[in-house]
Amino acid sequence: MRRFQHDEITVTDLFCGAGGSSSGLKQLDGVTVRQAANHWRTAVDTHNANHPEADHDCADISQVDPRRYPRTTLLWASPECTNHSGAKGVKRTAQLDLFSDRVDEAVDAERSNRHGSYPRAGLAILALALGGFAIGTTEFVTMGLLPQIARGLGISIPSAGHAVSAYALGVVVGAPLVTMLFAKVPRKNVLLGLMVAFFVGNIGSALASSYPMLLLARFVAGMPHGAFFGIGAVVAATLVEKHRRTWAVSMMLAGLTVANIVGVPVSTWLGQHLGWQWPYALVAVIALLTVVAVWLWIPHQGSLGVTSVTGELKALTRPQVWFALAIGVVGFGGMFSTFSYIAPTMTELTGFSDAVVPVILVIYGIGMTAGAFLSERVAMRGLMRGIFGCLVTIAIILSLFGFAAHNKVSAVVFVFLLGCVPTIMVPMIQTRLMDVAHEGQSLAAALNHATLNAANALGAWLGGVVLDAGLGYEWCSRVGAVLAAAGAVITLVSAWTSRRAAVAG
């Protein structure tokens, strides 16, 4: 064998099996197996036991974009040519629909069905959902405890509200920073570290005896948020067949929605009756349980699949990544322009009493849970088609919300829809980001949650502008309808440019 002019020869071993080929390659001086992949989980686990220094990926190779793997000197493989060529097995006469991810999606799904997912994928996703439940609870419980926090620390309610901002700032800063800094660390280890940091932040919140200590603790608690969901989404997607990726991501995010039904009301009650510190202590306990669940149920995961921080940053050079992030900021901004003021809308426009508002929020949470379970079914018709359809539906809901809010029955129905339809879209945007980011999919997925926090800020600000101008609460939803429609336009532009690139390529 002719030696290459490299200090080290790195190898990607596709169809790696238990590691026989890799063992043979390593017998050669200077040869290192950098990446191994196989569709059979048992084979991947065996290969990992024999070659723990390599990164591993359990995937149907025919469904994988080779660009997701790091560059190596040699490729040891014989992949199916039709799926690793520009044609992708599609006849020249076939035409790409504007929203088509691929015209042969049904064939891809059928092929994926031939291979099983990770045997304990359900438990692994449950571990991720448990972390999502803890994060969702701590994120929203502060809003319901502002009076108690203010009295406990001797500060004003607006000052106590800065604890919410400190957490959101932690999300925005932590999502890209953590993902890039730990790009070369195995994903399972990163998830464990994030939950430990989340535990520290919430214990710090429970023990905070001063206003500055609380702000610092909330910032620390927020930093793991985006990275956990971003990396967790990548992990969840690798545990199942390709056509079930959106389902896996939505089930992980279901923990976030269930938190709005169970975690936030229970924690709020606990804080009102036992003290504002106790909800944070409870979340800290759930964080520890998540650490144990991740350790026991999630299989070994390779690193984020890049050789350096610049590898993750390459995702930000791809226009489709920015299109997806823009869809999140603008499209979800419409929902938040309405939801941020849902309590006064229900009391002043609809005529509900303050005591009914928590029930309204539970209905919203039930809508979110329903949306999480419906997301896979919608995604099966195509990601971009599903995202566009959701945004158009959201625009219609918001344009009618101001009228519906004047009747108690229709107001409740529309609150449910406001929770359901946007939640259908979240996993699809997450999946879209992972698809278009290539080698930087973990960073892109994490940025999605920073984006949602930016959408929260944008929507709430625009809603406040409307109210300051002297317009009624019904106008908040009308502004939201415009934002949702703008998100739909961005989706059309993204789909059109993606189609042009596919045709040109």
Describe this structure in words.
The structure is a single chain. A 4-stranded parallel sheet has the order 3-2-1-4. The model is unreliable at 1-6, 80-94 and 102-116 (pLDDT under 50). With 505 residues, it is mostly helical. α2 links the parallel β2 and β3 (55-58). It is built from 18 helices and 4 strands. The protein folds into 3 domains: 9-93, 3-Layer(aba) Sandwich (Rossmann fold), CATH 3.40.50; 118-305, Growth Hormone, Chain: A, CATH 1.20.1250; 311-505, Growth Hormone, Chain: A, CATH 1.20.1250. 52% of the residues are buried. The chain is globular, with a radius of gyration of 24 Å.
Question: In which order are the strands of the major sheet placed?
Answer: 3-2-1-4
Looking at the structure, what is the overall shape?
A: globular
Number of domain units: 3
Total E-strand runs: 4
Radius of gyration over all CA atoms, rounded = 24 Å
Low-confidence stretches: 1-6, 80-94, 102-116
Describe the main β-sheet briefly: 4 strands, parallel
Distance between the termini: 35 Å
Counting H and I runs of at least 4 residues, what is the number of helices? 18
**Oligomeric composition of the shown chains:** single chain
> Structural class of the helices, strands and pairings?
mainly alpha
CATH superfamily of the largest domain: MFS general substrate transporter like domains
CATH class of the largest domain equals Mainly Alpha
Q: On the 0-100 scale, what is the average pLDDT?
A: 79
Order of helices and strands: EHEHEEHHHHHHHHHHHHHHHH
Return the CATH architecture of the largest domain.
Up-down Bundle
